[in-house]
Amino acid sequence: MTITFSEKVTGLTNAALTVANGSLSAVSTSDGGITWTATLTPDASITDTSNVITLDNSAAIDLSGNAGSGSTDSNTYAVDTARPTASIVVADSALSVGESSLVTITFSEKVTGLTNAALTVANGSLSAVGSIDGGLTWTATFTPASDITETANVITLDNSAAIDLSGNAGSGTTDSNTYAVDTARPTASIVVADSSLSAGETSLVTITFSEAVSGFTNAALQVANGTLTPVSTTDSGVTWTATFTPDANLTDASNVITLDNSAVRDAAGNTGSGTTDSNNYAIDTARPIFSAAAVVSNQLVLSYIETTTLDAAHPPGIGAFAVTTNGAANPVTGVAVDAAAKTVTLTLTTAVAYSQAVTVAYTDPTAGNDVNAIQDAAGNDAASFGPTVATNSTSAPPTPTPPLPEPVEPTPTPPTPAGDKDGIPPAMEDSAPGIPGPGGAAPIAGDGNGDGIKDSLQAEVASTAFVLSPTSQSQPGSAPATFVTLVTNSLDGKVDSASPSSRITSFTQKDAPANLPEGLEMPMGLVSFTAELLNGASSESFSLYVDASLGINGYWKQDSTGTWANLASEPYGGKTVLEGGRLRLDFQIADGGEFDADGKVDGIITDPGAPAYMPLSIVGLAPEVAAFWF
User: Please, what is the Cα angle at 385 between 382 and 390, to 5 degrees?
Assistant: First the structure.
């Protein structure tokens, strides 16, 4: 500021000056009193465009002692020392997954130079700030970060980054209103308390979420091989429980319960994502199935069909059995279980004689899961059965020696049959119903092909009880049993002893395959066997004896094109014959040929095939003298 007088004056001080919106340093002169100067410093936080400094002229005395009169105003000067201030508003103060919010920053005056670098954003990100009114109002879009749960968040502005049109920078910082972020999706864990379930058992299932959820029902759960009671919670939605009951007549070691996480919602409205599996649980609710009873002397053997093994450590008591011989009670004195052979052997008080009629009955101790019972390794109790006829395989007493006849040339004695080794317990084979033997001889128990020799003594013949169910292996249920006899090296159902060429090494039952052609019925699923070829044989002839009442009309296998072919038909060198009240299916398989399942020329014929029924109208078959043409 400069004050210029018309002549030299003395006595001038700041007291003579009225300063608008500011302050002056002490006035001084360097030319004897004509020109006086001082520095004006505006007051802070002022915005005023009309300001003057006023001099009281009477305070200026010239060298003659004359004082000035009135007052003198300076030129007008503007003062703008107000720093810009701001307010920040986050429109949506509670954000969840998928949401965003408008953020508005309003300044006390127009500013320039504002960028996102001036903003500190808690648990989220901002789009680039921008203004459409010259810098007074700035906006951006806030997007919350994922997997965050935080109720106290603010956006902070560094005010010094905002410059008004006068060049004043803001000072300090400005916080927005508080906003909550909940973008954490609920997660879950599922625990099946009992991971190994048998018949009659249930298990608690606990689903624990990372936070309280709503909208959870059983519709969100996929339950393998069982059912759940409705899920419920007692702690407002964090922990949910239900009771799992396994399906009946089932054996499956790999099962889980799967949750669709998107079906649950937390308090903020966030849904889960993906799926959650429970721990694995095993189910064995398939009960052992009684298949046959056979008695020799004082040993009565009960045979069972079971996918695993029987429990030999906890047999039933002797009182669970009722045995009669020719109608009179024959008390049981001992019970022994062979776990692997799946048999229960009863020791009788009185040995059974040849041709005596024997019945046996079994009563499961209770309807529940008993500690001691006929049961499998999982503890599934076998069902009770009423009086059942046991095959009496006790040898006949020796025939009295007749008078010696006239000497004749002795007939050579045939060799003793080779060991069996077909994997079927002798007690099971000896229970097979016999058919009339050579020359119409009376049937022999355990002689399923009517050659006069028990099948348990022949490596080329095997008899066993199969379950009458297409799902005999996985879900046999309570289906009844039927005996099946297989002959290898067969000549019209009898072993061709003149040229031994093979032996049976296994004979089991499997489930029928899925997606069978319409009309093809497999009442006992698949028959699966292996036969070892001997003496350089390259193919083999087989005969399979089945119950004629089952309506089976062929032995069916798929060829290389997937078409089902009847090997027991003339085009394939086979036939079907009624023999001794049984249906005999004759067929041939070449080692490594089209119908050898392993496809290798290795001296082993591997065969899963189906004794089955196909309506002749479907496959174009026609009956022709006890044979079926393909």
Answer: 110
